[in-house]
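Problem: given the chain below (164 residues), write out its structure.
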Amino acid sequence: MPRKRPAILKRELKRMTRARIQKELEAHGLECEEMTAGSIKYTVARFMNEPNQIVAAIYGSIKDCASIWVKEAAFQELKPELLSSHPEATVEDVSLFRRGFQWSVHIKSPDDPLIMKVIDKAVLHGQDRLNKTIKRRAEDTRREQARAEREAAMAERKRDWKSE
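Solution.
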């Protein structure tokens, strides 16, 4: 009689889910870094070489396997899809924790189809924010150069009272 394979324990299932989410985030070109807030360990996903452009975070979940925390704009894009194809999904308002995210979408297993949908929307929204930031940085650089040129031109025209 063949032996039954032992069931996957809840702790192992949670670990597998977090690993899958992290793998999918890295496949989108993001870097993941483990962080702590007090005794809570979580993983942030951000664009390479952009320490302030955090796209999403992976937190644990008491009832489910893991949760993906996303920003308001990403969630608003995801919301119609959640309502139509995943009405049973657990979504929580986490804006009160003041960690830069407004919504938490709970993931039930490593092969939950919700993982890709949430990540796709979060990365799409994060890319939009990154593009705006890059554009703003270029504009700031242009303004700084123009200011330096005006300052140099003014210095040439300025008269020195001691040398005249």
